[in-house]
Amino acid sequence: MSTPTPHIAAKVGDFAKTVLMPGDPLRAKFVAETYLENAVLINPVRGINGYTGTYKGKPVSVMASGMGMPSIGIYSYELFHFYEVDNIIRIGTAGSMHPDLKIRDVAFGMGACTNSSYVNQFELPGTYAPVASYELLKKAVEVTEGMGVNYKVGNFLSSDNFYDDSQGTMKWAKMGVLCVEMEAAALYMNAARAGKNALAICTISDSLVTGEATTAEERQNSFHNMMKIALEIA
């Protein structure tokens, strides 16, 4: 496929080699305006804002993924395959399933369990375990420890369901899963298939353990530690 694609209006070369990918287009705008120098809007299609600028002199892009695995599946596939992007770092939110993972703590997805059928397209003769890029994960942990931020590394649950009628989400906690979100597994699968790198960094926005939750405005405009970690390793 040539560029622009049906979903991204940019041309080859408009994206940096590393793209930060929040779910929310307004969080992408916030990162571009707050942290990037000389940020330029390179994709306005469907309101999925994408920007490229520099951070400490290094080119960095940020573009929203939308919600869920089908959406991040489209955008990450096109970035990896058509825009010569090497690294995608998800900067999203997650619901804690671990008693020691509190509101505004940071979680790194070393792996991503899922209840999605996204993997079926690859026609594998077994069960696939999506994992992060060790190189990106190692750098992120080193940066985070230097910042003194509370964090945990472990397994995520990437769920197709935000509203779970079976109320079975917490069952994953007994297997050591840290938190639930909706994108990491598809991102990791796309990266693996493309031979590229991916990492999901999530700020805990709510807790399934305590019932605490942040507001939509807080999720959009705060969570700076996660953003800084991603920018430092970009």
TrEMBL record:
Reactions that this protein is recorded to catalyse: uridine + phosphate = alpha-D-ribose 1-phosphate + uracil; a purine 2'-deoxy-D-ribonucleoside + phosphate = a purine nucleobase + 2-deoxy-alpha-D-ribose 1-phosphate; a purine D-ribonucleoside + phosphate = a purine nucleobase + alpha-D-ribose 1-phosphate
Asked whether the UniProt record includes Glycosyltransferase among its keywords, one would answer yes
- GO CC annotation, single: cytosol
Q: Known EC number(s)?
A: 2.4.2.1
The keyword Mitochondrion is assigned to this record: no
Gene Ontology BP term (one): uridine catabolic process
- The entry's active site is 206 (proton donor)
Its keywords, alphabetically, are: Glycosyltransferase, Transferase
Name the domain of life.
Answer: Bacteria
Which Pfam families does the record cross-reference, listed alphabetically? PNP_UDP_1
Q: Which residues form the Nucleoside phosphorylase domain?
A: 18-224
- GO terms of molecular function: purine-nucleoside phosphorylase activity; uridine phosphorylase activity
Question: In this UniProt entry, which residues are annotated as the site Important for catalytic activity?
Answer: 219
Residues that coordinate or bind phosphate: 23, 27, 46, 90-93
Q: Where does a purine D-ribonucleoside bind?
A: 7, 181-183, 205-206
Supply the SUPFAM superfamilies for this chain: Purine and uridine phosphorylases (SSF53167)
Question: What's the top EC group for this one?
Answer: transferase
Q: Which family does it belong to?
A: Belongs to the PNP/UDP phosphorylase family.
**Its quaternary structure?**
Homohexamer; trimer of homodimers.
What's the stated role of this polypeptide?
Answer: Catalyzes the reversible phosphorolytic breakdown of the N-glycosidic bond in the beta-(deoxy)ribonucleoside molecules, with the formation of the corresponding free purine bases and pentose-1-phosphate.
Protein name according to UniProt: Purine nucleoside phosphorylase DeoD-type
**Organism name:** Anaerocolumna cellulosilytica
